[in-house]
Structures are given as C-alpha cells and as structure tokens.
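step=predict obj=Putative transcription factor WD40-like family n=517
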Amino acid sequence: MEEEDIEITSREEQEEALVALIEHRTREVNNLRHRLAYTKNQLDDAEKRLKDSESKLARLRGQTTKKITNSDDDNGTVAVKKERRSNSPIDRNERSYKSNKQSKTELVIPAVTPKISRSSGKGSVSEVAVSSVHTSSVSGGKSVKSKIDQQNVEGKDKGTKRKFEQKEHQELIPLIRKSSSKNLVHCQSSNHISSQHKRKLRSIALCPANDQLFATSALDGLVNFWKVQAKGSSASLLNSTDCASQKQRRWPEDIAWHPEGNRLFSVYTADGGDSQISVTNWNKIKGVERVTFLEDKPHVKGIINGIVFMPWEDTCFVTGGSDHAVVLWREQDDEDKWKPRPLHRNLHSSAVMGVAGMQQKQIVLSAGADRRIFGFDVGAGRAEFTHQIDSKCMSVVPNPVDFNLFMVQTGTHEKQLRLFDIRLRRTELHAFGWKQESSESQSALINQAWSPDGLYITSGSADPVIHIFDIRYNLNRPSQSIKAHQKRVFGALWLQSIPLLISISSDLNIGLHTLMK
C-alpha cells in the first residue's frame, strides 16, 4: 500500500514538473515568435528605405545627365534655370504636396514651398537636404554620393513623421472588449537617468520628426532637450533652456512640438498680463533668439491647461484654458507670426482641461471640468456633438489609427478612462481604470498615451507604476502594471521607431523601458 502511494506521489510530482516545463517552454516559444515578428517588420522597413534611396539616386543621376546635355547647347546658367522649372517627377511631386500626403520625400526636392523655406530659415532638419539636391545636381561625381548619404540621414531622422502621415485609418472599435485574455507587453529592462531638473517634472513631448528626440519641462522653468542613445538604454542631454515667462517667471504648463520638429511651443497663464505662448528653437542658430514670446494674449484669465498641434494640412495649434475658452492659432506668412481665433468661450461652464484634433475632419475636441466633452466643427463654426458624463474630464487623446476613436480621462476611481466613438452620440464604448493606493484624489497632471498600433494605452498613476490597458481586454482594469519609479508617475510615451516607453516621475528621474510585445 505504501509503495502504491509513493508511486502515485512520484507520478504527480513528475506531472507537475512537466506541466511547469511546458508552460515555461510555451512562454519561450511565444517570446521568440514576437522577436521574429519584430525583426521581420524591421527588415521590411529597411527594404523600403533601401528602395527609396535607390529611386532617389536614379532620379538624381537622371537630373545630372540632363544638365550635362543641356550645357552642350546652352550655357551653364541657363541650364540650371531650366532645371529648376523642369517637369520632372520630383518637381511635380513638390507642386502636388498639399494635395498628396502619401510621401514626405518632397521635403528634399529643389522647388521649395514658402512654408518649407520658412522652416529651413529656422534650422529645420530639411534645410541641409534641400540645399544638397541643388549642389549635387550641378556637381555630380563624388558630390552626388555624399549628398545622397546626407539626404538618407535626414530621411532616417524623419522616418517617424513619414510613417505617421502615411498611416491609413484602421477599424479598431469592433475589437474593443472582445477578448477575455490579456495580450501582455513584455518589459525587458528599465533604466533610469536624472532629469537634470531641480523641481518637479511637469510635461514630456516626443519630436514628431524624430521620436528619439524628446523634451521635458518642470517647475524650475527649464525645458531640457534629449536624444535617445544605445537603442533606448540611455539618453543624452542636448541642451537646457530657460523658458520661464517674461513677467512672472512662470514655468510652462504644457508643451508641444511644431510638426516640423524644429521648435517647441509652451503655454503659461493669462493672469497679470504675462506672456501666454513661447517658441523655443531647440537647435541654437546664430543670430536667432533661443526663446521668443508671441504678442497676442487671447486667454483672459487663469492657467492655460493644454496646447496641441492639429493633425491637418494647414499648420495650426489649439489651446484650452481655465477661462473656459478654446483658441485656434494659425500660422501666418511672416516668420513666427501666429493669429489666434477663439473657437468658443461659453460652451464650457468651467475650465477646459484638455484639447485635441481629429484626423478625418477639422473637429476640435475639448474636455472640461464641467463634465462635458465638445466636438467643435471649425469649418461650420459650431459644436457638432456634446457628451455629458458623470465626472470631471481632465484630458482627451484621439486614437492614432482609428480616426473615429478617442479617449477621455475622468476623475472617477476605477473608471478613470473612457472610450468614445465620434459617430455615436452620448454613447460610451468602454470604461476602465485602476485602484490608487497612495492617494484618493485624481490628479490632472497624470497623463495617458496611445501605443503606435492604437491597441494599448499607458497611464501614469499616483502610485509608482505605469498602467497599461489593452482595449481588447473585456475587464475594466489594467491588463498589466509596470513598477517604474520610486514616486508618482506622470505619464509614459511610446516610441514608434524603437520598442521603448519613456516615463517621467516626481522622483525627478526619466525612465527608459525597453519593450517586447
């Protein structure tokens, strides 16, 4: 009898060991599959960049050959003038830039539109690339190769922006809450560096032209510019700029990059006649002031809570303030001139906490402490829809892939995040959130961000963790939480160029979290 018991126990132990081994090897296989898929995507992107470079080289060689032919019949000056007015595919692409956004290679072509020439005057990353095409097309030989290499570097720096603008609408709304299992994002490693700020951090923003450049702002009035190093394991400080307001020496309440990636905009307060918007040229240029302040002051009182550039063809941004106002600022023909136009001042009965723009239509979203969300049609000059919810709103973030989907942060515990479809009136698609251990109050300084594929949301917390939500998961809690800092986490942003999350915290550190999905 004892021998039988021993034999059964031995079989059970062996079975448990084998089950554990199978689980371990299943995870190992899944991880390798994810790595293989990621490597394949990287290979596809590299092949596309190679083909793009080859086609540029072929076009430039064709231009050089044409110039040599023309010079046999005319003098060199006439040939250059003809080339600038030629009907080559490159010039035709530039003229059709505003009507066709499928490619951003137009940033490095000879014919320069007024908007691009303004930016290149301010040290835009497109400046060297534009001039390189003129030079290489005349010089030929080694010059062509060197300028092509320089062009490829510029194109690589702006790869993220091209991908963002080429991305087409994808239907993600049917996937919401359809899965009972968690699709985890695996964090391989976390590294922390000092933010170099002396007071509490306030904001972080990724450069839209190259998401491995980012900026941080803090209560010390400084804006620090960073570059990711070593595939995300570290970051180097490029420069630190004093961006405190002119009169009251206020810190930036929020920051946003210009779409061309050469300037950073900061917002302050409307009290005391102080400056409301500053523009920082992050790459210092001789003879150009590092920080300038816009003269117009359309907000009448209180803090300006948010600034966001609109994802539209015309360059413009929107600000929302404690004076209940939402203001649209359009770029003018003159350099660094922006004309503000209030979209509405009376729709909200309390502070506007967050603003955003929709991709498929010129609609500005605003979320207020009055528990209301408005979608304002800029073309029609009226509110297209209103949502009233059960708690104050603190931010709004559109999905980067599904252009009908947006998220709103609220003050309701365990239901802080809400999903909405812009086509459905007064309909909430999903509500989810987290429990807070450190504090019962919900801070408007906690921010959220979508993953590049639009399936995940990261959120900061009063606790020292990053919460990650999978919108396909059918429960109303995080699909996972990552221990990220020693104190409260204000937010974490996803990079598109490499699998990395960058977080900021009240522990004055920047977190670099390498991912593998």
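step=describe
The longest strand covers residues 186-194.
step=end
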